[in-house]
Amino acid sequence: QLVESGGGSVQAGGSLRLSCAASEVTFSSHCLAWFRQAPGKEREGVAIISRRGGSTYYSDSVKGRFSISQDFSKNTVYLQMNSLKAEDTAMYYCAAGRGVDAHLLRPSGYGYWGQGTQVTVS
Q1: Tens of pLDDT along the chain (122 residues)?
Q2: H or E element: which one contains 24?
Q3: β-strands 31-37, 44-49: how paired?
Q4: How far is it between the farthest Cα atoms of the chain?
């Protein structure tokens, strides 16, 4: 089970931090990622962190502005979003996955999804 929090409304240029709490088993045995989906658009992978937290990857659209991290003591993964733009407006989802598709940030690689948290940038 994945439970996101931290979404909200912010002005362009502002910051938000999303949190995703996972079960210990999910947290320790899957890579974790953040996806987003804007109305009328496909779900887009924005950031991934490896199972042991050793490596991260970001989509070009958020590179340099977003940062993914994890707290093993809390089984929680975070997405720090800085310099937010209007085009970052979307529903943001936390996901856990395994395998090649997961590491390539393809939604098909993720078997566990949170309920989503809305981010609106104006």
Answers
A1: 899 999 999 999 999 999 999 988 888 888 999 999 999 999 999 999 988 777 999 999 999 999 999 998 999 999 999 999 999 999 999 999 998 888 889 999 999 999 999 999 99
A2: helix 24-29
A3: antiparallel
A4: 38
